Amino acid sequence: MKTVDAKYFDGRSARQQAVTLSIAHGLLEVHGNGLLRKLPLSGIRISAKLGSAPRLLHFADSGHCEVNNHADFEALLLEAGIKPQSLLSRLEHSWRHALVATLLAIVCVIAAFYWGLPWIANIAAARIPASAVLAIDTHFLKAVDASLMQPSKLSAARQSEISNEFNALQNTDGIPLHHLAFRSSKKIGANAFALPGGTIIVTDQLIALADNDEEILAVLTHELGHVSERHPLRQLLQSSVVGLAMTWYLGDISSLLAAAPTLLLETGYSRNFERRADHYAATMLRMNGIPPARLADILEKLETSHSANKKSKEQSSRIAQLFSTHPDTGQRILELRSEGAE
Amino acid sequence: MQTQEHRFSFSGTGSEYFRIWIVNLVLSILTLGIYSAWAKVRRMQYFYRNTRLNESSFDYHGKAIAILKGRLIAVTLFASYYIFIKVMPLLGLAIGLLIASVMPYLLVISFRFRLYNSSYRGLRFGFAGSIKSAYVTFLALPIATLFTLYLLAPFTHQRIKAYQHNNSRFGQSAFSFNAGAGGFYAIYIFAFLQFIVIASLLAFGAFSMFKGHTANASRETMVLLFVLAVYALLIVASLLIVPYFISRIQNLVWNHTELGKHRFESSLSARGLAWIIFSNFILIVMTIGLFKPFADIRMARYRIEHMALIPAGNIDEFIASEQQQVSAAGTETAEIFDLDIGF
Predict the structure, then answer these.
(1) Which positions ≥6 away from B210 have C-beta within 8 Å?
(2) Residue B343 CB neighbours (<10 A)
(3) ipTM score of the complex?
(4) Which of A9, A102, A109 is closest, CB to CB, to B121?
(5) B235, A104: Cβ pair inside 8 Å?
(6) I want to staple B14 with a disulfide (CB 3.0 to 4.6 A). Which of A133, B39, B115, B297 is the partner?
(7) Quick one: how many helices (H) and strands (E) in chain A?
């Protein structure tokens, strides 16, 4: 009969006792100096194998045994007709499974990042009440008006002229709820951007940069494309989740270092969103008799104006490129021009 | 009677733990995080069962369902705070205040859960801290610390450790804690001085390096350099000061903790810890995170194997608490849920 050495604890004191275990007729025999217990196997919880950590046998009366000799113990279980290892233990043991699991984990993380997260953010964005989303815009404007932006220096007449031209544009699916906001900003320069609640901010510098109003309208329809597909809100949700995940994963190292990779990863979303907004703008512009190439024209000017501002140091612009949310403008310009030619 | 010290030992290995970790990670991902509670039980059991004192191992008894409940509560609370603070700052702030006001209670629950579910030689640990003192220790004192510009921070830290250790027990034997606030102040002040020295050395270095070039550099470049310098400072500081701080605090706390008449000894060195933190960090970055389980094992081994129990008698003489008999019948409140709040 097979036996295995173990340590026995009675659950009432910290005393440990050397014992030998054996199994006969469905009973576990715990045999030690002045100790003989026979316990029905059905009342014993045998811990699943966990690496080479000791295996524990918990008895119904709170006593337990600790076994360190894995080979002998597994032989004992096998002889008694008990499976020595659970499925999980076997999965955890083999290197082949570990390799498969590693690949699977990497695939899952990539899939979650490229498809899962955007999909969930899209669903969630549709469910956030409009009042809450509008509150973000108010909050954001309050924050940037204090530091980054000044009131627009355009005349009220010019502002309403642009607004009227923009509001006169038609689109097949109708126009999403939006609101134009004119601002001046030396720091940001020529730019336009959409906020989650549908506020489209356009700077005086951008209006000055445009050679004609069609170019301004082209940029505004591009931003309207962002609003229409809720890109700002989705981007906000996605980057929040990525940020949370990074902080959780790298948390032990430093929550600060977690910020840098998040910035790098976020640009991936922006690229896709930019293309979708370009497409939206091109369709809408064509409907209103404006060639989509107008958007390409102003994009080109924006590109040169921004790189002129950054003429300073090569090293800084190279780093800035990494963090840029409009990376492949050249590619986008080409696509817009070809779309106009169709 | 003075017996020889018993060193804690750790027998987990990185290669073994990696296989357990990755399989459980994939199961957690495939079940959208639900399995992570079971994975945590597995992880805790691996670390506990591989920790030995006087040839016997520790064990972890937490139930995955309780951990899952705790995680759902924690995720709901923190995710709603995190989202609302961006979307609706006022509501976010209200949720933040709510979290702060229930935090001491949640901490007590999680201490109870963790200790009650830990055992050594078949005897359970336990935690008997009152909710009232938890509110003093984890809410009133931190607020006071904020208002005294962190001058109270070392004192608060001492009160937290005293609350935790004075209210813990093993079987029927109580832990006790006898470190005063003075030791904590010494560590905090020395860590702060180190930070000042490192910051001024870096500032001086950066200044002398760019002295000749500042004239023709644009403002943007200067800002970028400043940001990089702050990052460098934080990384250097966290590699030098954090290991110092962690090791000295662990040593102070455990060298002043007793279990009945038995004492503990902790002898972590800042240098040893710095090397582990630094090399773990580099290797985790280089392996896109796959080194994490190896890193966890190295850190656990270092911290565990620098601990010892100095017995003042026979350690066989500990006996189970009455509560343990009761809880075997399943009436322990600590089983309701667990929260992953660590200290």
Answers:
(1) B217, B225
(2) 10
(3) 0.82
(4) A9
(5) no
(6) B297
(7) 13, 11
Among candidate residues B279, B191, B288, the one with its CA nearest the CA of residue B242 = B191
* Domain segments of chain A as ranges: 4-88, 94-127, 130-341
Beta bridge partners of A182: A202
Residues of chain A in contact with residue B322, where contact means CB-CB under 8 angstroms, are none
Average pLDDT, chain B: 85
Q: What is the pLDDT of residues B181-236, one digit of tens each?
A: 999 999 999 999 998 998 888 878 777 776 666 555 566 666 777 777 777 777 77
Cα angle value B83/B86/B88 (rounded, 5°): 90
SS3 A12: coil
Q: pTM for the whole thing?
A: 0.80
Interface check for A143 against chain B (CB to CB < 8 A): the answer is no
What's the pLDDT at A322? 43
Contacts of B30 in chain A (CB under 8 A): 108
Instruction: Report DSSP letters for B270-283, one per residue.
Output: HHHHHHHHHHHHHH
| Distance of alpha carbon A138 from alpha carbon B88, whole angstroms | 10
| Subunit contact B281:A128, Cβ cutoff 8 A | no
Q: Which of B12, B29, B316 lies at the smallest CB-CB distance from A108?
A: B29
pLDDT value for A188: 77
**What residues of chain A, 148 to 167, have a C-beta less than 8 Å from chain B?**
none
A138 touches chain B (CB under 8 A): no
Residue A65 pLDDT level (bands cut at 50, 70, 90)? very high
The CATH number of domain A4-88, selected from 2.140.10.10, 2.30.29.30, 2.40.110.10, 2.60.40.730: 2.30.29.30
Strand order in the sheet with A64-67: A35-40, A27-32, A17-24, A4-9, A64-67, A55-58, A45-46
Q: Which residues of A touch B13 (CB under 8 A)?
A: 51-52
Q: What is the pLDDT of residues A117-162, one digit of tens each?
A: 889 888 988 888 888 888 888 888 887 787 778 899 999 999 999 9
Q: What is the 3-state secondary structure (H, E, C) of A166-233?
A: HHCCCCCCCCCCCEEEEEECCCCCCCEEECCCCEEEEEHHHHHHCCCHHHHHHHHHHHHHHHHCCHHH
Q: Spell out which residues of chain B touch residue A128, defining contact as CB-CB under 8 Å.
A: 87
Of B11, B23, B221, the CB nearest to A97: B23
The pLDDT score that the predictor gives to residue B323 is: 56
Q: Do the chains contact at A94 and B19, CB–CB below 8 Å? A: yes
Please answer yes or no on whether A105 and B22 come within 8 Å at the CB atom. yes
Selected for mutation to probe chain B from A58, A64, A91, A233 (highest B CB count within 10 Å) is A91
User: Between B14-30 and A95-111, two packed helices, what is the crossing angle to 10 degrees?
Assistant: 40
The pLDDT value recorded for residue B1 is 46
